[in-house]
Design brief:
The chain has four helices and eight strands, in the order E-E-E-E-E-H-E-E-H-H-E-H. It is α+β, with helices and mostly antiparallel strands. The strands form two sheets. Strands 1, 2, 3, 4, 5 and 7 form a six-stranded antiparallel sheet that branches. Helix 2 packs antiparallel against helix 3. The chain is globular, with a radius of gyration of 15 Å. The protein starts with a strand and ends with a helix. 26% of the residues are buried. The model has no long low-confidence stretch (mean pLDDT 91).
Length: 155
């Protein structure tokens, strides 16, 4: 996994091989993906599937914590390679309780990642996998076919 804070005013349309979970910590932004346009503010959580083009726009600057989860770090676990959440962007469909749980998991991963105590990498990877599994139980998703995965990789 990769975890970092960033402040953006504008981030051109781009994509990653990793799934991204972004938690806004300060300011506001508009996130645009292939399927969705969403306004996000402090406390909101955004989700971008791997290889899905997205763009970030903020008039006054927006700071966020970004958790990138790379499927290759979970070799032998086919589900993480295949999962595709049906809606990119803001996790507004989650209940307040579920959003609080997701925030808590992100913070937990962030503290371990920053402290880097012995075994932090194992802990962070396990927690990231558990977070994706939790979201699979809460959000509409599908498992990509081999054809869909190949098309996404070719971007």
């Amino acid at each position: 996994i990769n975890l970092f804070f960033n402040t953006v005013y504008y981030r051109t349309p781009h994509l990653h091989s990793e799934m991204e979970i972004v938690m806004v910590t300060e300011g506001r932004m508009t996130a645009v993906s292939e399927k969705t346009r969403a306004n996000a503010e402090k406390g909101d959580i955004l989700l971008f599937n791997s290889t899905r083009i997205h763009e970030l726009i903020s008039a006054d600057g927006c700071t966020f914590l970004c958790l990138q989860i790379k499927a290759e770090n979970f070799r032998g676990c086919q589900s993480i390679y295949k999962v595709c959440f049906d809606h990119d962007c803001i996790l507004s469909s989650l209940s307040a309780e579920d959003l609080a749980c997701v925030r808590e998991q992100i913070y937990d991963i962030a503290y371990a990642y920053i402290d880097q105590l012995e075994g932090y990498d194992l802990y962070c990877h396990c927690r990231a996998g558990m977070l994706v599994h939790y979201l699979m139980g809460k959000l509409p998703h599908h498992m990509m076919t081999l054809k869909e995965r190949a098309e996404r990789k070719s971007r």
